[in-house]
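Field reference: sequence -> structure
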Amino acid sequence: MVTAVLLVMIGKRVVVILNRESGTMLALGPEVARDLLAEVFQRHGVEAEIQLLKGREIQGALEKARDGNADSVIVGGGDGTVASAATVMAGNDKPLGVLPLGTFNLAARDLGMPLDLEAAAEALITAPLGEADLLEVNGRMYFCVVVLGFYPVMALGQKEYHGNWMVKTFKTGWDVMRLLATYPPLDLVLHDGEKEFRCRTRFAALANNDYEDLMGLIPRRRSLDGGHLTVYVSRHRTRFGYVKSLVAWMMGRWRHDKEMTVFHASQLKISVKRKRRLAVMCDGEIEKLTTPFEVFLRPQALRVLAPRLAEPEAEVEPADEVAEMPEEGQQ
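Structure field:
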């Protein structure tokens, strides 16, 4: 009986749009993935139109699926593909499901999706319906995080890697430790409409809500709809300081890092002294943005199929209190 009720969430007709260029698809094989998904949906009585598309074809397919007669739209790919889907589906009543076919799959992890493809498809069948906040940058929606500083610049110079997330994490960590202490700091200026915060930093991140205090390398957000940006600004100056910060993050103790400034906002205007163009990473995709630019939190802008909402363990302890933006000029 429970399954019958929850099946209404995904509906009887779905469009499944798969990025055939994503990491998992390249490893597994697009046709193999398509056939596996078709079997799962058929087994549960869901009529699924499955499309294997290149990255440049996805936006048009999403728009067509949004305006069609399907009950739900499911997208498979990495976080950049999910961002494309969020941009198209924001404000629409039709729910979006996510299949984790990228490398890190931050959005899928936040939604509580299993990383195994068959298990993920099964989870979508009975996934509760929820509403998720989004980040808006220059009119485009993002699900997870906006990153400034050395990391986007470093990523620009690397060959894209489509493989195991643990291997990519190790490779990324090695490059971070090698380069971060030598990257010139940014003179960052953040303005929330009332106050201004200035800081010299090599790394800053604007997350869609808070991250949980959990052990591990891959973060997971505390809530899908907390209604705020959480801003993380590093004030570390040495490689040793960054190493300590990384260890604190892995141990789930980043809040005890005295060289990390953390505060909440609902929107921010971002500028950098002496820089008119800035490399910014938005959900894994590198954008070169003209400064100043603005980031907005769009509360409950996206209807999502989210297995985590059915899990009792998703109800975590309340977060420690996070301050609003520090006083003007405080670093």
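Note: The chain has two domains: 2-133, 142-299.
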